[in-house]
Amino acid sequence: MYILGISGSPRKKGNTDIVLEKIISGAREYKIKAEIIYLRDYVVTPCIGCEKCRKDLTCSQFYDGMTLLYPKVEKADILVLGSPVYHYNITSMMKSFIDRLYPYYLFSDERPRKYQSRLADKKRSGIIFSICEQIDQNEMGFAVEAMAKPLEALKYNIVETMPISGFFDKGAVREDVSLLESAYALGQKVVIYHINNRS
Predict the structure, then answer these.
(1) What is the Cα gyration radius of the chain?
(2) Statement: the pTM of the whole predicted model exceeds 0.85
(3) Among 87, 153, 163, 185, which is least packed, fewest CB within 10 Å?
(4) Are 187 and 19 in contact (CB under 8 A)?
Protein backbone atom coordinates (compact mmCIF):
# COMPACT_ATOMS: atom_id res chain seq x y z
CA MET A 1 0.00 0.00 0.00
CA TYR A 2 1.18 3.50 -0.85
CA ILE A 3 -0.17 6.80 0.49
CA LEU A 4 0.60 10.09 -1.26
CA GLY A 5 0.14 13.44 0.45
CA ILE A 6 -0.13 16.62 -1.64
CA SER A 7 0.36 20.06 -0.10
CA GLY A 8 -1.06 22.96 -2.07
CA SER A 9 0.49 25.61 0.15
CA PRO A 10 3.12 28.03 -1.13
CA ARG A 11 4.31 28.56 2.46
CA LYS A 12 7.05 26.17 3.50
CA LYS A 13 6.47 24.56 6.91
CA GLY A 14 3.18 26.39 7.27
CA ASN A 15 -0.04 25.10 8.79
CA THR A 16 -1.03 23.00 5.76
CA ASP A 17 2.36 21.27 5.72
CA ILE A 18 2.21 20.58 9.45
CA VAL A 19 -1.26 19.00 9.34
CA LEU A 20 -0.40 16.99 6.24
CA GLU A 21 2.79 15.67 7.79
CA LYS A 22 0.87 14.67 10.92
CA ILE A 23 -1.72 12.74 8.85
CA ILE A 24 1.03 10.94 6.97
CA SER A 25 2.83 10.17 10.25
CA GLY A 26 -0.32 8.46 11.50
CA ALA A 27 -0.50 6.37 8.33
CA ARG A 28 3.15 5.36 8.69
CA GLU A 29 2.29 3.67 11.98
CA TYR A 30 1.16 0.77 9.82
CA LYS A 31 4.54 0.51 8.08
CA ILE A 32 3.13 1.43 4.68
CA LYS A 33 5.05 3.40 2.09
CA ALA A 34 4.22 7.08 2.27
CA GLU A 35 5.39 10.20 0.48
CA ILE A 36 4.62 13.91 0.67
CA ILE A 37 4.70 16.20 -2.35
CA TYR A 38 4.87 19.97 -1.96
CA LEU A 39 3.42 21.49 -5.13
CA ARG A 40 5.49 24.64 -4.63
CA ASP A 41 8.52 22.54 -5.57
CA TYR A 42 7.03 21.69 -8.98
CA VAL A 43 6.03 23.68 -12.03
CA VAL A 44 2.48 22.58 -12.86
CA THR A 45 1.21 24.49 -15.87
CA PRO A 46 -2.53 25.23 -15.81
CA CYS A 47 -4.65 23.08 -18.11
CA ILE A 48 -5.54 24.88 -21.36
CA GLY A 49 -8.34 22.51 -22.39
CA CYS A 50 -6.62 21.36 -25.58
CA GLU A 51 -8.14 17.86 -25.14
CA LYS A 52 -5.06 16.14 -26.57
CA CYS A 53 -5.02 13.96 -23.46
CA ARG A 54 -8.30 12.32 -24.52
CA LYS A 55 -6.38 10.54 -27.26
CA ASP A 56 -2.94 10.33 -25.66
CA LEU A 57 -4.21 9.32 -22.17
CA THR A 58 -1.63 11.66 -20.66
CA CYS A 59 -0.89 15.35 -20.92
CA SER A 60 1.22 15.62 -24.06
CA GLN A 61 0.85 19.40 -24.25
CA PHE A 62 3.25 20.11 -21.39
CA TYR A 63 6.36 18.42 -20.04
CA ASP A 64 6.49 19.76 -16.50
CA GLY A 65 6.03 18.76 -12.88
CA MET A 66 2.91 16.74 -13.61
CA THR A 67 4.96 14.47 -15.83
CA LEU A 68 6.75 13.44 -12.64
CA LEU A 69 3.60 13.32 -10.54
CA TYR A 70 1.37 11.20 -12.78
CA PRO A 71 3.17 7.92 -11.93
CA LYS A 72 2.89 8.68 -8.21
CA VAL A 73 -0.84 9.41 -8.49
CA GLU A 74 -1.40 6.18 -10.41
CA LYS A 75 0.56 4.17 -7.87
CA ALA A 76 -1.10 5.66 -4.78
CA ASP A 77 -3.84 3.71 -3.04
CA ILE A 78 -4.61 6.68 -0.79
CA LEU A 79 -4.39 10.35 -1.76
CA VAL A 80 -4.38 13.13 0.85
CA LEU A 81 -4.96 16.66 -0.44
CA GLY A 82 -4.49 19.76 1.69
CA SER A 83 -4.74 23.44 0.83
CA PRO A 84 -5.03 26.73 2.66
CA VAL A 85 -8.06 28.82 1.76
CA TYR A 86 -7.36 31.51 -0.80
CA HIS A 87 -10.33 33.81 -1.41
CA TYR A 88 -12.93 31.15 -0.52
CA ASN A 89 -11.19 28.51 -2.60
CA ILE A 90 -8.02 26.43 -2.96
CA THR A 91 -4.66 27.79 -4.06
CA SER A 92 -3.93 28.16 -7.76
CA MET A 93 -1.26 25.45 -7.58
CA MET A 94 -3.71 22.93 -6.12
CA LYS A 95 -6.30 23.92 -8.76
CA SER A 96 -3.73 23.37 -11.52
CA PHE A 97 -2.83 19.97 -10.08
CA ILE A 98 -6.48 18.90 -9.97
CA ASP A 99 -7.22 20.21 -13.47
CA ARG A 100 -4.24 18.29 -14.83
CA LEU A 101 -5.83 15.03 -13.62
CA TYR A 102 -8.15 15.34 -16.64
CA PRO A 103 -6.25 12.66 -18.64
CA TYR A 104 -7.68 10.05 -16.26
CA TYR A 105 -11.18 10.50 -17.65
CA LEU A 106 -12.45 8.40 -20.54
CA PHE A 107 -15.28 10.13 -22.40
CA SER A 108 -17.94 8.79 -24.72
CA ASP A 109 -18.65 10.60 -28.00
CA GLU A 110 -22.27 11.63 -27.46
CA ARG A 111 -23.14 14.94 -25.81
CA PRO A 112 -23.43 15.51 -23.00
CA ARG A 113 -20.54 13.08 -22.84
CA LYS A 114 -20.59 10.31 -20.30
CA TYR A 115 -17.33 9.52 -18.59
CA GLN A 116 -15.54 6.93 -16.54
CA SER A 117 -12.30 7.03 -14.59
CA ARG A 118 -9.14 5.19 -15.53
CA LEU A 119 -8.25 5.38 -11.83
CA ALA A 120 -11.13 3.05 -11.06
CA ASP A 121 -8.76 0.18 -11.84
CA LYS A 122 -8.47 -0.45 -8.11
CA LYS A 123 -9.98 0.73 -4.85
CA ARG A 124 -8.68 4.21 -4.02
CA SER A 125 -9.32 6.28 -0.92
CA GLY A 126 -8.91 9.97 -0.20
CA ILE A 127 -8.63 12.48 2.62
CA ILE A 128 -9.30 16.18 2.10
CA PHE A 129 -8.49 19.05 4.43
CA SER A 130 -8.32 22.81 4.19
CA ILE A 131 -7.28 25.54 6.62
CA CYS A 132 -8.61 29.10 6.87
CA GLU A 133 -7.96 32.05 9.16
CA GLN A 134 -11.56 32.86 10.02
CA ILE A 135 -13.41 31.08 12.82
CA ASP A 136 -16.66 30.70 10.88
CA GLN A 137 -16.25 27.67 8.62
CA ASN A 138 -18.58 29.29 6.08
CA GLU A 139 -15.61 31.53 5.34
CA MET A 140 -13.86 28.50 3.85
CA GLY A 141 -16.09 28.87 0.84
CA PHE A 142 -15.58 26.06 -1.70
CA ALA A 143 -12.11 24.88 -0.71
CA VAL A 144 -13.04 21.44 0.62
CA GLU A 145 -15.53 20.73 -2.18
CA ALA A 146 -13.06 21.94 -4.82
CA MET A 147 -10.76 19.07 -3.85
CA ALA A 148 -13.31 16.42 -2.87
CA LYS A 149 -15.65 16.59 -5.87
CA PRO A 150 -12.98 15.93 -8.53
CA LEU A 151 -11.60 12.97 -6.59
CA GLU A 152 -15.08 11.53 -6.17
CA ALA A 153 -15.61 11.85 -9.94
CA LEU A 154 -12.36 9.94 -10.42
CA LYS A 155 -13.81 7.18 -8.19
CA TYR A 156 -11.90 7.86 -4.99
CA ASN A 157 -13.81 7.10 -1.84
CA ILE A 158 -13.42 10.18 0.35
CA VAL A 159 -13.04 8.69 3.81
CA GLU A 160 -13.18 12.04 5.56
CA THR A 161 -12.99 15.78 4.98
CA MET A 162 -11.37 17.96 7.60
CA PRO A 163 -12.22 21.68 7.49
CA ILE A 164 -9.90 23.54 9.88
CA SER A 165 -10.64 27.13 10.85
CA GLY A 166 -9.05 29.80 13.02
CA PHE A 167 -5.40 29.55 11.98
CA PHE A 168 -3.30 31.96 9.94
CA ASP A 169 0.09 32.68 11.54
CA LYS A 170 2.79 30.35 10.28
CA GLY A 171 2.95 27.23 12.44
CA ALA A 172 -0.01 28.25 14.62
CA VAL A 173 -1.53 24.78 14.43
CA ARG A 174 1.39 23.45 16.48
CA GLU A 175 -0.27 25.01 19.53
CA ASP A 176 -3.44 22.95 19.07
CA VAL A 177 -2.51 19.54 20.42
CA SER A 178 -6.04 18.21 19.97
CA LEU A 179 -6.05 19.13 16.28
CA LEU A 180 -2.70 17.44 15.66
CA GLU A 181 -3.86 14.33 17.50
CA SER A 182 -6.98 14.27 15.32
CA ALA A 183 -4.85 14.60 12.18
CA TYR A 184 -2.60 11.75 13.31
CA ALA A 185 -5.62 9.57 14.08
CA LEU A 186 -7.06 10.41 10.67
CA GLY A 187 -3.94 9.01 9.04
CA GLN A 188 -4.44 5.79 10.95
CA LYS A 189 -8.16 5.73 10.15
CA VAL A 190 -7.73 5.99 6.39
CA VAL A 191 -5.25 3.10 6.33
CA ILE A 192 -7.53 0.85 8.39
CA TYR A 193 -10.49 1.83 6.21
CA HIS A 194 -8.59 1.08 3.02
CA ILE A 195 -7.35 -2.28 4.28
CA ASN A 196 -10.90 -3.28 5.21
CA ASN A 197 -12.48 -2.09 1.97
CA ARG A 198 -9.95 -2.63 -0.82
CA SER A 199 -11.16 -6.09 -1.88
Answers:
(1) 17
(2) yes
(3) 87
(4) no
